[in-house]
Amino acid sequence: MMVSFFDQFASPSLLGIPLIAIAIALPWTLFPTPPSRWINNRLITIQTWFINRFTNQLMMPLNVGGHKWALLLASLMMFLITINMLGLLPYTFTPTTQLSLNMGFAVPLWLATVIIGMRNQPTVALGHLLPEGTPIPLIPVLIIIETISLLIRPLALGVRLTANLTAGHLLIQLIATAVFVLLPMMPTVAILTATVLFLLTLLEVAVAMIQAYVFVLLLSLYLQENV
């Protein structure tokens, strides 16, 4: 039976029941919980330091009103990083390769930033649709262009995360298949290809973390325009 390279992105199911909910909920059980003791172990200390540094970096450009989003954005960052990293393990499923899931994250959060801007400072929020000093004949065209660019933001967020992870997984599977095919015929070439596969895996680990950071960073930039 021929197996398609894209079968790895199909949502798993058992007896007709989708298992994507388990794949989404599982990462939360892997996070270490701080104990009641004053002195924590090294893992919790590193986790706390990372979250604090990330939150400070993310909230630095925002005013006090935007700091209410710190818990949400930090939690989303940790969630996406964990899911992306677990998806690199063999025989696992990566929920963030599903565009529907990524759009489910991007659209509500982007819409929340737009609603906050319209409620708190409607003049400034609408002013982003028309740059200052625009010639009068270009005003209708620029308003249409800026409106389209505003509405396309959540689509860009979801597609960027999906495309980068999907491309990485496909490339890893293609090179791994080439290693198994070349090993009996040309062992030297297979070893070189396996070395490339190892380096690509390291690159995909970096991509998994960077894409989660970019997703949350862009959300914070959209929030910065509206608070």
TrEMBL record:
It catalyses: H(+)(in) = H(+)(out). It is found in: Mitochondrion inner membrane. InterPro entries: ATP_synth_F0_asu, ATP_synth_F0_asu_AS, ATP_synth_F0_asu_bact/mt, F0_ATP_A_sf. Keywords: ATP synthesis, CF(0), Hydrogen ion transport, Ion transport, Membrane, Mitochondrion, Mitochondrion inner membrane, Transmembrane, Transmembrane helix, Transport. The keyword Nucleotide-binding does not apply. SUPFAM superfamilies: F1F0 ATP synthase subunit A. Gene3D superfamilies: ATP synthase, F0 complex, subunit A (1.20.120.220). The chain crosses the membrane at residues 12-31, 69-89, 101-118, 138-159, 171-199, 205-223. It is a multi-pass membrane protein. One of its GO terms (cellular component) is proton-transporting ATP synthase complex. One of its GO terms (molecular function) is proton-transporting ATP synthase activity, rotational mechanism. NCBIfam families: ATP_synt_6_or_A. Component of the ATP synthase complex composed at least of ATP5F1A/subunit alpha, ATP5F1B/subunit beta, ATP5MC1/subunit c (homooctomer), MT-ATP6/subunit a, MT-ATP8/subunit 8, ATP5ME/subunit e, ATP5MF/subunit f, ATP5MG/subunit g, ATP5MK/subunit k, ATP5MJ/subunit j, ATP5F1C/subunit gamma, ATP5F1D/subunit delta, ATP5F1E/subunit epsilon, ATP5PF/subunit F6, ATP5PB/subunit b, ATP5PD/subunit d, ATP5PO/subunit OSCP. Belongs to the ATPase A chain family. This is ATP synthase subunit a. It comes from Metzia formosae (Taiwan lesser-bream).
